[in-house]
Amino acid sequence: MPRLDTAVHDVATDVIAAPEGDAPYGGVVADEAWAAEVRRLATERDAVLLAHNYQLPEIQEIADHTGDSLALSRIAAASEASTIVFCGVHFMAETAKILAPEKTVLIPDARAGCSLADSITGEQLRSWKAEHPGAVVVSYVNTTAEVKAETDICCTSSNAVDVVASIPADREVLFCPDQFLGAHVKRVTGRDNLHIWAGECHVHAGINGPELAERAAADPGADLFIHPECGCATSALYLAGEGAVEADRVKILSTGDMLTAARATEAESVLVATEVGMLHQLRKAAPDIDFRAVNDRASCRYMKMITPAALLRSLREGADEVHVDPVTAERGRASVQRMIEIGKPGGGE
Ligand code: SF4
């Protein structure tokens, strides 16, 4: 548990006020009393607590499982608990509900959205499909349930290339919503009939090539761990191609695969290009390695809306419950299942 305040107070009397505007829930300190009350309420609700790798360290530490979005959804489906508390953003909790429709799924703050998932709506995807009849739709897991329901095959950053490669070469492919992951897939598959939606995540797009090049030059012995949604993924491959950094130093990885690579690398330092919350799990996985963010301002404000106060409120009130209508859930589930059948899905973001 990271630096818990050991002051004893009666957390049951903590009042959690409704936040103003889009501010997160606040006013609760993540101390030992909070941790004990969270555990007690989770047991009372028969709830399993899941936390994404980008969550605040204190939320990651109190969770039963920490991981990437798809891995957590699969844990949700396999869990014997009747309630899932998903500490992440809304589309992730929806994916858990799609895979575990019989369970109660709670997100501690339903306002925790995602700029990437919001890049395309179900209506926009239906219009795009109408312009390309017969095309196969491949969507990254960072999409709403409505978009998944309009999708033929979902993909994660680990298997996007395999998913697209599994589609007959003469079929058009519509890839959404992330343009950087789409560009990565197009480059690797060399496919001309792949159309890419111009969506992006504001956090990952803010990690840019020049910044990466500067950091890589200043630390020539470091490995580079890059999430393919990063604006710098292309630059990283370009730098490797130019010989500016050794090609085997550049690793394009999902967040789950970053942890595996962290345990395996012999590098003494690693530059990490993804949301800064990831550093917590990396440092735990390989404490002797010096992990540094390429951009330490790359923090997702939606992920950080899941505060200690929001989690306490969620467990006290059984809020905010996530609903997906059964028809949308069934169609969305089919696109996720097709992805799993094609190969190692990894974990997505
Ligand atoms: S980091 Fe980007 S893709 Fe991830 S939840 Fe935040 S806005 Fe969405």
From TrEMBL:
Domain of life of the organism encoding this protein: Bacteria
EC number(s) given by UniProt: 2.5.1.72
Database matches in NCBIfam families: nadA, PRK09375.1-2, PRK09375.1-4
Keyword Transferase: yes
Pathway the protein contributes to: Cofactor biosynthesis; NAD(+) biosynthesis; quinolinate from iminoaspartate: step 1/1
InterPro entries (alphabetical): NadA, NadA_sf
Listed GO CC annotations: cytosol
Protein name: Quinolinate synthase
Lineage: Bacteria, Bacillati, Actinomycetota, Actinomycetes, Pseudonocardiales
Organism: Prauserella rugosa
PANTHER family on file: QUINOLINATE SYNTHASE, CHLOROPLASTIC, QUINOLINATE SYNTHETASE A
KW Electron transport (keyword) present: no
Any single GO BP term: 'de novo' NAD+ biosynthetic process from L-aspartate
Cofactor: [4Fe-4S] cluster
Enzyme class: transferase
GO molecular function: 4 iron, 4 sulfur cluster binding; metal ion binding; quinolinate synthetase A activity
UniProt keyword list: 4Fe-4S, Cytoplasm, Iron, Iron-sulfur, Metal-binding, Pyridine nucleotide biosynthesis, Transferase
Matching SUPFAM superfamilies: NadA-like
